[in-house]
TrEMBL record:
<dbReference type="InterPro" id="IPR050121">
    <property type="entry name" value="Cytochrome_P450_monoxygenase"/>
</dbReference>
<keyword id="KW-0503">Monooxygenase</keyword>
<protein>
    <submittedName>
        <fullName>Cytochrome P450</fullName>
    </submittedName>
</protein>
<dbReference type="InterPro" id="IPR017972">
    <property type="entry name" value="Cyt_P450_CS"/>
</dbReference>
<keyword id="KW-0349">Heme</keyword>
<dbReference type="InterPro" id="IPR002401">
    <property type="entry name" value="Cyt_P450_E_grp-I"/>
</dbReference>
<dbReference type="GO" id="GO:0016705">
    <property type="term" value="F:oxidoreductase activity, acting on paired donors, with incorporation or reduction of molecular oxygen"/>
</dbReference>
<dbReference type="GO" id="GO:0005506">
    <property type="term" value="F:iron ion binding"/>
</dbReference>
<keyword id="KW-0408">Iron</keyword>
<dbReference type="InterPro" id="IPR036396">
    <property type="entry name" value="Cyt_P450_sf"/>
</dbReference>
<keyword id="KW-0479">Metal-binding</keyword>
<dbReference type="GO" id="GO:0020037">
    <property type="term" value="F:heme binding"/>
</dbReference>
<dbReference type="InterPro" id="IPR001128">
    <property type="entry name" value="Cyt_P450"/>
</dbReference>
<dbReference type="GO" id="GO:0004497">
    <property type="term" value="F:monooxygenase activity"/>
</dbReference>
<dbReference type="Pfam" id="PF00067">
    <property type="entry name" value="p450"/>
</dbReference>
<keyword id="KW-0560">Oxidoreductase</keyword>
<feature type="binding site" description="axial binding residue">
    <location>
        <position position="407"/>
    </location>
    <ligand>
        <name>heme</name>
    </ligand>
</feature>
């Protein structure tokens, strides 16, 4: 194979003997820094630390090559590997060869199909009602806090038929929820930083933080176990939700049900990954809408205009869906993923041997000006409308991952986000409390630094009622 070895790849300047590219380590904003390096070094480059080479693929065309499931596969590396210590064999952290992964995927797939969103719509709508009521009463909004609350409530109510106590009159959180959230935040920060640490300092930090981390993991699993134990004690009682699916449904292939330990893994995965990624998406969307009120007015006037937010109407909100897609393009909550070469591959003239993993930097590939145009860094939701939508489908866009290991909850997240965003837009004009840039922090996901909005009653269109999907 006439190709260059990976050792010939460009690398950041200032490489040191033994330590390698330690000067290029940015443990606070690793993927954003790697995106900057893509602009300097090209669509594929290397970073070497203590002899370990990371191959970063940031060009859209090269990233698209790695989506071929015959030639490339998924590998558990980076923050997801760290989170395995927390979520065990949950869908995101299980290894594909683990029999429980296939069993759980088969059992849960019907619960995340588009048809299931009709079942969950009422629970999601109740959260939208509580959120907008809260903003009516308290118009100065801590966006990070409220999106955390709203997305956890959606998962709790739609997924487990349980109010989490984070919105409305029961604000203050159900027993243990606040402690769980604090522990979860520290775990996500650890997962992100520990995989992007300075050599030699990382292991020291691991040892020093192990007691706190183990306590946080125990807190998370204890909280989830209480949810499951309550359901088992009370019984299903006709509840049509994800927890019931996991507890009561047999795998169509093996005839076996999920063991309770794996149900705990799955519930913890949905609470952690499900709320974190959707909250990140909502925060980005709200920031851009507040920064560009004329866009918010246009969507409210042309697409909402007092329309009842039934299930049928929400799935037809094309402008809102395009807006969310553009948020996901610019700021994917999961900024990258690893792909493993099944056979010898060539990327941009470099030989990637079979069994070698590369890091596909979606954050960079989805901003590649060679594919997305010279305005790739600008927010333009019309990229995902009309003829431009057709063109976009041929470009690299993978905010939910790829292949059989792509995010099973993407339909859930999109329906939830569309409903919440439509509810807010139809009722409120939003503005930033003070001018501020959108600053992203990394803690296993990309999520905005906290910012504050001010909501005032919308005057351009009548408020759209949030309605059940059942006519």
């Amino acid at each position: 194979m006439n190709a260059l070895p990976l050792s010939a790849l460009p690398h950041p300047p200032g490489r040191l003997p033994v330590l390698g590219d330690v000067r290029s380590v940015d443990r606070r904003r690793p993927t954003q820094h790697e995106t900057e390096l893509t602009r300097e070094l090209g669509p594929i480059f290397q970073r070497e630390l203590l002899g370990n080479r990371l191959v970063v693929v940031g060009g859209a065309d090269l990233a698209r090559q790695t989506l071929d499931e015959e030639s490339w596969g998924r590998v558990l590396v980076g923050p997801l590997a760290q989170l395995r210590a927390v979520a065990g064999a949950g869908l995101f952290t299980a290894r594909t060869r683990d029999p429980l992964w296939g069993q759980a995927r088969r059992i849960l797939t019907p619960g995340f199909a588009q048809a299931a969103m009709r079942v969950y719509h009422d629970a999601m709508a109740s959260v939208a009602d509580d959120l907008t009521q809260k903003w009516t009463e308290s118009p100065v909004i801590d966006v990070h806090r409220d999106m955390t609350a709203a997305t956890l409530e959606v998962i709790g109510r739609a997924g487990f038929s349980r109010r989490m106590g984070l919105l409305g009159s029961d604000d203050g959180a159900a027993d243990g929820t606040g402690e769980f959230l604090d522990a979860l935040g520290r775990i996500l920060l650890w997962a992100g930083e520990s995989t992007n640490d300075v050599p030699m300092l990382g292991p020291i930090r691991e040892v020093l933080g192990s007691r706190r981390r183990n306590a946080d993991i125990a807190t998370g699993r204890r909280f989830v176990s209480s949810i499951i134990e309550t359901r088992v004690r009370e019984g299903a009682r006709g509840r049509n939700d994800l927890l019931g699916l996991m507890l009561e449904t047999a795998d169509p292939e093996t005839g076996e049900r999920l063991p309770l330990r794996n149900v705990t893994d799955q519930v913890l995965t949905f609470l952690a990954a499900g709320h974190e990624t959707t909250a990140a998406l909502m925060e980005v969307a709200l920031y851009y809408l507040a920064a560009e009120p004329e866009v918010a007015d246009r969507i409210a006037t042309t697409e909402l205009d007092g329309t009842a937010l039934t299930y049928e109407n929400v799935v037809r909100l094309r402008q809102i869906r395009a807006y969310l897609n553009e948020c996901l393009r610019l700021w994917p909550p999961a900024p990258g993923f690893f792909r493993l070469a099944r056979t010898d591959q060539v990327l941009d003239g470099y030989h990637v041997p079979a069994g070698r993993a590369v890091f596909v930097l979606a954050l960079a590939a989805q901003r590649d000006p060679a594919v997305w145009g010279p305005d790739a860094d600008l927010f333009r939701a019309d990229r995902f409308l009309g003829e431009r939508l057709t063109a976009s489908s041929r470009k690299f866009f993978a905010p939910w991952g790829t292949g059989p290991r792509s995010c099973i909850g993407r339909q859930f997240a999109i329906h939830e986000s569309s409903l919440l965003l439509a509810s807010v837009l139809s009722r409120f004009d939003l503005r930033l409390e003070k001018p501020t840039d959108l600053v992203m922090r990394e803690r296993a996901t990309l999520r905005p630094e906290p910012f504050t909005l001010v909501a005032s009653p919308r005057t351009t269109v009548p408020a759209a009622p949030v309605a059940s999907g059942r006519s």
